[in-house]
Specification:
Length: about 325
């Protein structure tokens, strides 16, 4: 594909009413410096989005775990039989979703550090600033340390949640039977296995009740992960904003209606005829929607004051058609 490309040109694309057809207007050639800067800016912007979306996998995995617990709680809120096999199946499904979240959590943290070091270099301020922020967020949280270490336990030793109870008692107001399904970790089960809990986690674990719920610790860990994601976005934001600004300026230089794009292999044209139809050039739509969202984000120092960040990187056309 690269061998057949000719000089890049700035153009606008206007869709017709027929599917997969449109009207392309070539505006001008892009010189080597302009196109090189556009390429670099486009890479930065799209990479920023790709890295941001990686955290959504962690967020979705957490939500799936929480929704499963709520679904079971609702299903068994009224008295109904629960045999031993069904109980084991429920416990295993809860552990499966939990292990999925713990794996996504660790993957996000490992990938974030590796990606930043690859982009900027190990000693870059973007990397050192992020690692410092991450440590400040996590170091004061024993709940996070416990959850983080449970990931290794769940992957290499045993299911984290070993106990499930199903109780039923009359509702105080209605007198009707009201049931409750709850899940607990067994402290002795965790401590007695041949597993290293580290110097910080073991004392904390030893002081917990013999059977304890994991949910409060998971909630704290997820809250802190949201803050780490903000720190990661803030580390990348200054250079990405510069790139987004250039993309927006290039797109704004197009004064005609339609979608700004960079086109290759456009058929030859005369000065009197700049509009070309029914061609099959290589068209690269300029990501103006994404660039506009990025440029509108708060500056990094303001961003770091937020407890979390959700950016809707959904194209307008996709949102309207969905």
């Amino acid at each position: 594909m690269e061998e057949t490309r000719n000089i890049p040109e700035l153009a606008v694309l206007r869709s017709s009413r027929e599917p997969r057809t449109g009207h392309l207007t070539i505006l001008r050639e892009l010189n080597r410096e302009e196109y090189g800067k556009y390429q670099a800016s486009r890479r930065l912007v799209t990479h920023f989005v790709d890295e941001y979306l990686k955290f959504t996998m962690t967020r979705r995995s957490y939500n799936e775990y929480v929704r499963l617990l709520r679904a079971y709680d609702q299903e068994f809120s009224v008295e109904r039989p629960l045999d031993e096999i069904k109980a084991m199946a429920i416990k295993q499904e809860v552990n499966r979703r939990l292990r999925g979240f713990l794996t996504e959590m660790r993957s996000f943290l490992d990938h974030a550090e590796t990606s930043l070091k690859h982009e900027y270099g190990k000693e870059a301020k973007e990397v050192t600033g992020f690692l410092k922020a991450r440590s400040q967020i996590f170091d004061s949280s024993p709940s996070y340390r416990l959850v983080n270490k449970l990931r290794d336990y769940a992957l290499h030793r045993n299911l984290a949640i070993q106990n499930m109870t199903y109780t039923s008692k009359p509702n105080k107001e209605t007198g009707e039977p009201q049931s409750r399904l709850s899940f607990h970790l067994d402290k002795d089960e965790l401590l007695q296995t041949n597993f290293t809990w580290t110097k910080h986690v073991r004392p904390y674990l030893e002081n917990l009740p013999a059977r304890f719920k994991l949910d409060p610790h998971i909630q704290i860990a997820m809250y802190l992960l949201e803050q780490v994601n903000v720190a990661l976005v803030a580390a990348r934001l200054p250079k990405t904003k510069e790139a987004a600004r250039y993309i927006n300026e290039l797109a704004e230089s197009v004064q005609e209606p339609g979608t700004p794009c960079v086109v290759f292999n456009a058929p030859g044209r005369t000065s009197e005829e700049s509009e070309v139809q029914h061609i099959k050039p290589v068209i690269d739509e300029i990501p103006t929607y994404i660039a506009a969202l990025i440029e509108k984000l708060p500056e990094s120092d303001e961003l770091l004051k937020l407890p979390g960040l959700q950016i809707d990187f959904v194209f307008k056309d996709d949102a309207q058609s969905g």
